[in-house]
Amino acid sequence: MKKNLLFEFSPIAKCVKFSCFMFILLVGFSYGGYGQNITLNMKNKSLDQVLRAIEAQSSYKVLFNVKQVNAYKNVTIDVKNVKLEEALETCLEGTGLKYILQGKTIVITLADKKASKMDGIEIKGVVRDKSGEVLPGATIMIKNTTAGVTTDVDGVFTIIVPKAGVTLKATFVGYKPKEFIAEDGKEIVVVMEEEVNELNEVVAIGYGTAQKKGFDGERVPYRRTIAF
């Protein structure tokens, strides 16, 4: 009995107990992240509301094109303790939309060109930033219309346009809108530029040099000095 007590309070025993605790914690975390269950009973709700309800019951963020999702106003779903994937498939059934899991984000996008097929030309492309990184969830719209799609996890988009030569517009949060021409038979690479806060404004002084403070309180140099 004495030997058992000595082992129980020994450094080795503490190490073994801590390792077991961490293993159980990690397994539980993994299950909670990828095996989450959803329970919903919603009648005649908008698809937006249903997706937000799923988001509230999971640790995922839902990203979608508002205009695409808002087209579905009467969604009914009744599921109990089902996996996240099953809940998403149920609420998107018959919409022509699909979901893609990217890390801890759910991206809702068009399922394929057959789901929303119409007479016209298929335009394909990819959206990137200036450093070459792809931008998943960027919106591609036919200018002056409500027709559009979102890019998938690889920044790729496919959109049907009435004819070649129409103007398309790419938008993404934190980036300047970018207009470009739809070209038939050519994959388009859209490069977007980040929005820049106008902190480097010209400061007019009597004569000499001055600096303008940024929002964080640090001093930043202005572009030039005006003497008068």
Q: Give the class from helix and strand content and strand pairing.
A: alpha+beta
Largest sheet: 4 strands, antiparallel
Average of the residue pLDDT scores = 75
Q: Compute the gyration radius: what is it?
A: 26 Å
Write out the strand line-up for the largest beta sheet, numbering strands in chain order.
8-7-10-11
Low-confidence segments, given as residue ranges, are 21-34, 113-119, 200-210, 212-217, 219-228
Helix share, percent: 10-25%
> What is the beta-strand fraction?
25-35%
Order of helices and strands: HHEHEHEHEEEEEEEEEEEEE
| Shape category | globular
Q: What distance separates the N and C termini?
A: 93 Å
| Helix segment tally | 5
DSSP summary, beta strand count: 16
Description:
The chain is of the alpha+beta class and 228 residues long. It has five helices and 16 strands. It has helices at residues 2-8, 11-34, 47-56, 66-69, 84-92, and strands at residues 37-45, 61-63, 75-83, 97-102, 105-110, 121-129, 139-142, 148-150, 156-161, 167-171, 178-181, 188-192, 203-204, 211-213, 219-221, 225-226. A four-stranded antiparallel beta sheet has the order 8-7-10-11, with no helix packed on it. Strands 2-5-4 form a three-stranded mixed beta sheet, covered by helices on one side. The protein has a three-stranded mixed beta sheet with strand order 9-6-12, with no helix packed on it. Helix 3 (47-56) runs antiparallel to helix 5 (84-92). The longest helix is centred in the N-terminal third of the chain and has 24 residues, at 11-34. The chain is globular, with a radius of gyration of 26 Å. The relative contact order is 0.10. Mean pLDDT is 75; it is low at 21-34, 113-119, 200-210, 212-217 and 219-228.
